[in-house]
Amino acid sequence: GAATLVKAVKRVEYGRDGVAPRVCLVCPTPIKEAGCLAPIFLGGEAKSHQLWDSFQQASESLECELINIGDYVQVSPIDGVHFEAKSQRTIGEVLASKLEECDRAS
Fold this sequence. Notes:
Helices cover about 45% and strands about 10% of the residues. By secondary structure, it is mostly helical. It starts with a helix and ends with a helix.
């Protein structure tokens, strides 16, 4: 999962000055059992709300940044898993801002 990817990135030496780049995990927005895809994702809404705790534990143990994108956007009620256009833009703006903050801090 995400922790495996973080560990892999932290092993490379291709970042600035030959050290591994900083890593920022992005916790996905919880899904909703709604709309046309509700039957496919039955039970997924409750499970998706558990992701934050898992991502938080991983970011702490792996010493990396963490963004909870669910603090900024929600999935579309049309299908419960995808984002509407406005949310896509918000995600881009949030990630750009947070990654710039991380870059300035390093």
